[in-house]
Amino acid sequence: MPLQILLNGAKGRMGQTIAGVAGEMDAVIHAATDVGDNPAAHLAGCDVVIDFSAHSATRRLLELVVAKKKPVVIGTTGHSPVEKKRLRALAAKVPCVWAGNFSIGVNLLFALTRRAAAVLGADYDAEVIEMHHRYKKDAPSGTAARLLEIILEERKLAADALRHGRSGITGERPSTEIGVHALRGGDVVGDHTVLFAALGERVELTHKASDRAIFARGAVHAAHWVVKQKPGVYDMQDVLGLK
Ligand code: NAD
Hints:
About 35% of the residues lie in helices and about 25% in strands. The protein is α/β, with parallel strands linked by helices and about 240 residues long. The chain has 2 domains: about 5-100 and about 210-240, NAD(P)-binding Rossmann-like Domain (Rossmann fold, 3-Layer(aba) Sandwich), CATH 3.40.50; about 105-210, Dihydrodipicolinate Reductase, domain 2 (2-Layer Sandwich), CATH 3.30.360. The strands form 2 sheets. A 6-stranded parallel β-sheet has the order 2-1-3-4-5-11, with helices on both faces. Strands 7-8-6-9-10 form a 5-stranded mixed β-sheet, covered by helices on one side. Helix 1 links the parallel strand 1 and strand 2. The structure holds nicotinamide-adenine-dinucleotide.
């Protein structure tokens, strides 16, 4: 019996891509919901919910899946750190995979970034640059936000170390600053570079996505995995065994 998916945000770019790959991955879209639809009406017959909609929709959706004890995969980004903390506490009541990026390559980039930040240390200025298509509604991307979290953790810095863009008389760059730059334009699916620059050398780690099917396949893969897990919030590092 193929995995029965309730897909929320079904009319969007990611929703349509997931619907396109599900059939080749032993899964079917049991129900497709978008703005104005009521996912509650379709929850009973599905095995798992996949959400790629809008950050404002996540709370309501999580309340519904928790009430019905359904596993869930959250791909939506754009939540503030405070919002995310509250929502994760709610999501932990069911098996939940929550990832800002479902690609295998980006999850490797997360692991490499942690290693590079640890080895290179505070003498290497860290900056994160991302580029996405002109239609993207949030910035920086969820993937950039995760890369920044990793660098902050390794450097033992708080979120106020982040510097979103620069303009005017900025003064010299303090070593405790982590720069963040969001570029937007055209049809770019998603580029991320983590840069570590010291006096005399520079290390750049770059991932470029050229087809959003990589995220869609990752999300369906996570859906197959999450239905076998105990309640808790997992990420793609768990799904891929990268921890
Ligand atoms: P999109 O704007 O093309 O699609 C979003 C869809 O969600 C639209 O059809 C919209 O009508 C619908 N929607 C909005 N509010 C809703 C609500 N309250 N209930 C139900 N549906 C609602 O966007 P997209 O490019 O498909 O991306 C969707 C989300 O996924 C964004 O947050 C994006 O950043 C994120 N994303 C995550 C990954 C990842 O790997 N985690 C990859 C790509 C995109």
